[in-house]
Amino acid sequence: MATYTTSQFKSGLKVILDNDPCSIIENQFVKPGKGQAFSRVKLRNLLNGRVMEKTFKSGESIEAADVHEAAMQYLYTDGESWHFMVTDTYEQHEANAAAMGDAVKWLKEEDMCDVTLWNGQPISVVVPMFVTLQVTETDPGLKGDTSSGGNKPATLETGTVIRVPLFIQEGELLKIDTRSGEYVSRAKE
Amino acid sequence: MYHGPRSRDGRHWRPSTSRRLLLQRAKLLAQLRQFFAARDVLEVETPLLASATVTDIHLASLSCRVEVPGGTRRLYLQTSPEFAMKRLLAAGSGPIYQVCKAFRDNEAGPAHNPEFTMLEWYRPGFDHHRLMDEMDELLAVVLEARSAERLTYQQVFERGLGLDPHHASVLELQSTALRAGIDLAGQGPDDRDGWLHLLMSHTLESDLGRGRPTFVYDYPASQAALARVRSDQDAKEGRGCAVAERFEVYVEGVELANGFHELADGAEQRRRFEADLEQRQASDLDAVPIDERLLAALDAGLPDCAGVALGVDRLLQLSAGVSDLRQVISFPIDLA
Question: How far apart are CA B245 and CA B229, in angstroms?
């Protein structure tokens, strides 16, 4: 089993803490002129995204986490799992809802995304910052209607509902910012 | 400080400091030399490579093999010039100071470089309080600092944590660390002093030296290192308590210097070295040779004196008001 000692700590290192895979964000070496040295480490839990600060005694070691990222193509969902493929090896992976998180809102078949694997299992899926999706359903916008603040709900091809300007029609392609979940502009195919 | 291994292909050849800070370093060194010249403290040089080194379990010395007539010798890069300077004092040098490089393995971070510049000076006839007076004068000159506040180690813990560091149990220290939000991975510190170091570095240090320097003095006897230990009678509590006549200097939360009313008893010094070596063995640390020449010098008679070591790179960082130690070192370890 691979381990890292505190002197090897650096940002980006993947380790196991309390049975969960974590990524080191920051490592601060703390040492009085006389006395015991410590590492104050900021880590992100890769399963739930929570950030925590832990103190290690200098020289202590921690188990390495077998975590890596790969670009994959989203294939389909069977309702319980989401299936992905590494396009150059045809190697396939299944992610569960917890690993998918918000990615389900924006992913459509054949889209590329970054999948993080822990011991070969997907634990998180990151979609591109901007995606292009088609509007499948929206009320026709009424000219001059500003009662709803100039926007209206629209259902996208992934089933996600977002607010769009009144002039958007069914069948149009939209550019969406996946970080905020907001409409950016119309998109060309 | 340590930014990971850099490629050695020549892309990163530029210094991490600026010409302005090079000038400021030169000016600081001139100020220090002037300060000691005006006080008739003699500048000396001692070897950076020596046959023995510090035994302190929390200091790791770098060593190298050196070819000399008669064979190969393992020599140690000094973590401070203390041992050799004490041999000069015992030989009758009078007050001395030195500005030199010191080396400590396993120490790299935003406030540490494994090779750093140290100012160390010794004052025969001074105790740690008189040396603190002189430190105050030095900081007034180089940092334009106000006169320092002086707190005992006990006062720092009582003020910050409501805790008596000399009498609190390990359990109390543990629960205080927990309440302070320190989340430990693994087993935590090895011993009582380890818990005190943890609380000092994580919760107390950053508040020390704000607005004016703080001198913390009279440390637990277990953290004496090379300082004298004095028996103190705590009249209020009626509990006896031995303290080490040692002080630390903090400026704006940065630990700047460490001083001792120097232990002059060779037999006591030998006991401390041997206790360190036993602890080194128990902790699976490298064995190091005891400095017999230092012990012989103490036996011959070290004048009653106080001495202090000060980190010059940190001093420059504070006087220049820059955020990162890298900015005051021409080539930190990853660029060296």
Answer: 6
